[in-house]
Design goal:
347 residues; globular
Length: 347
């Protein structure tokens, strides 16, 4: 019987340390697609000169939706009464104009301060509770403010709305005309400036802290984060931005309706965020664009049943595009990249 051949002992393989998983931090560098996005409104000024009023209102509603996305998409605070701050800003700017203060920029700033202070006071009631409590508190505040404006018809005009609003020339040069040219650039400028500031804020350590609170608020105190303080700050900022949006609407349309404080406006805002996607800022703008275009087109086809089709659109988005339009688009891009890499690996 032949002896088994000698086998050399296996050499130990060097241990290769595993690469740590790195999660890229958000940055405020502008991507080419973002630049294109902000050039589209300017292009629409020349392409759709007959729709400048509608486009300016889209930008205002988009700014309003961004204000809710700050507290819902980033901080996780559910609100059904966010229209309270929107309407408060609208009535502040409108009442200032009716009583002789018609300078638009200062009126916008005063409306922002009033809404921000009211939001700061309400925040102490909101941040102490959980989801259902916050939902009821915000809803209650919105309903109370709506009824207060309705009862104070001598001041707000009640169900007839606040009329007699007129604005001076913007910067003393540009007059608010019926074609909406000044309103268009005014709304676009305010939206862009505020968006740049908010974009920087959510990409800062403060913004990361808000995401941490949304994902696991009970763990944040372990790293020294003051949860209530951060929620108070972002709720106040959201209320301030909502007030600016309301003041913009009042100044550009020169009218303030009681519906600016209504629950229906808060509900529409939630629909807009669901359509576009929460926690992205751009999702609020895209959701506002899709919602208002669909509303304008469908209402033109069938004014009585347009809400049916809006509801159907909402169901389709929720079922087939989790995370809204932006979330669905992001997953589609990732699937395409993964498929391309798999094909390259096989070849």
């Amino acid at each position: 019987m032949k002896p088994a051949p000698y086998a050399a002992p296996a050499q130990p393989q060097p241990v290769v340390p595993a690469k740590p998983i790195r999660h890229p931090l958000p940055n405020d560098r502008w991507k080419p697609l973002e630049i294109v996005f902000w050039l589209l409104p300017l292009a629409s000024y020349f392409l759709f000169p007959g729709y400048l009023v509608l486009i300016s209102q889209m930008m205002i509603v988009g700014l309003f939706a961004v204000s809710l996305d700050l507290i819902l998409g980033y901080a996780g605070i559910v609100s059904l009464g966010h229209a309270a701050f929107f309407g408060l800003g609208a009535y502040t700017a409108g009442l200032l104009s009716v009583h002789g203060w018609s300078e638009p920029i200062s009126g916008l700033l005063i409306a922002a301060v009033v809404s921000g202070l009211f939001g700061f006071l309400v925040s102490f009631l909101v941040v102490r509770g959980q989801d259902l409590t916050r939902l009821m508190v915000t809803l209650g505040v919105g309903l109370m403010l709506y009824e207060a404006a309705n009862k104070a018809a001598f001041l707000t005009g009640g169900v007839d709305g606040l009329s007699g609003v007129s604005m001076n020339k913007l910067f003393g040069v540009f007059e608010f005309d019926l074609y909406g040219k000044t309103a268009f650039f005014y709304s676009f400028g305010v939206l862009f400036i505020i968006f740049v500031l908010l974009r920087r804020m959510v990409n800062s350590p403060f913004g990361l802290g808000l995401i941490g609170i949304r994902e696991g608020g009970k763990r944040m105190p372990a790293i020294g984060a003051d949860v209530n303080k951060r929620l108070t700050v972002i709720f106040t900022v959201g209320a301030t931005v909502a007030g600016i949006a309301g003041a913009l609407l009042a100044q550009t349309t020169q009218f303030v309706g009681l519906d600016s404080l209504s629950f229906a406006r808060s509900a529409e805002l939630m629909i807009i965020l669901v359509l576009g996607g929460t926690g992205r800022l751009y999702g609020a703008l895209i959701g506002a664009l899709v919602f208002m275009l669909a509303q304008d087109y469908i209402a033109g086809l069938n004014p009585a049943y347009w809400q049916f089709w809006i509801g159907l659109l909402l169901i389709v988005i929720v079922l087939f595009a989790r995370g809204g339009i932006l979330g669905g688009a992001e997953r589609l891009v990732n699937m395409t990249k993964t498929s391309a890499r798999n094909k390259e690996g096989k070849s």
